[in-house]
Amino acid sequence: MRKKLKLELLKRGGFTLLELLIVMIIIGLLAALIGPKMIGRVGESRQTVAKQQIEGFSSAMEMYKLDTTKYPTQEQGLEALVAEPQGIANWKGPYLKKKFIPKDPWGNNYVYTYPGEHGDYDIVSYGADGNSGGDGEAKDVASWE
Questions:
Q1: SS in 3 state form for 48-71?
Q2: What's the CATH superfamily of 45-145?
Q3: Does pTM surpass 0.85?
Q4: What confidence tens digit (pLDDT) does each residue in 84-125 have?
Q5: 125 and 113 in contact (C-beta within 8 Å)?
Q6: Per-residue DSSP letter, 77
Q7: With contact defined as beta carbons under 8 Å apart, do 46 and 105 qualify?
């Protein structure tokens, strides 16, 4: 029985050109329907990652303030969360797991402002275009939102 099945499979020899074309058409249709929806999700996921990173910075800022009684100055910037600034007493960092300040999901630096216009401090990613304002993937992601 087993030998007979192997012989039948060997006789078949493979797929016909028509079968391959049908499979290619089905894959093409699926890609055309699903592809654009998935591409839109990439921008949304980058926005989500930026929000999460900013929330992580905000948590680290609160720990920094608990230890030093103040937020980092504009000049010290976010680097104060990973490297001890000069003249700061009671710094017990680093306050982030990684020993460096990550770039935003588009490869740009986060912008830290102290004192902030919307709170004690502001942390902003300017999105895909790297400029203030914008829509969609270029929309700013900020600590006050």
A1: HHHHHHHHHHHHHHHHHHHHHCCC
A2: Glycoprotein, Type 4 Pilin (3.30.700.10)
A3: no
A4: 999 888 999 899 988 889 999 999 999 999 998 999 999 999
A5: no
A6: G
A7: yes
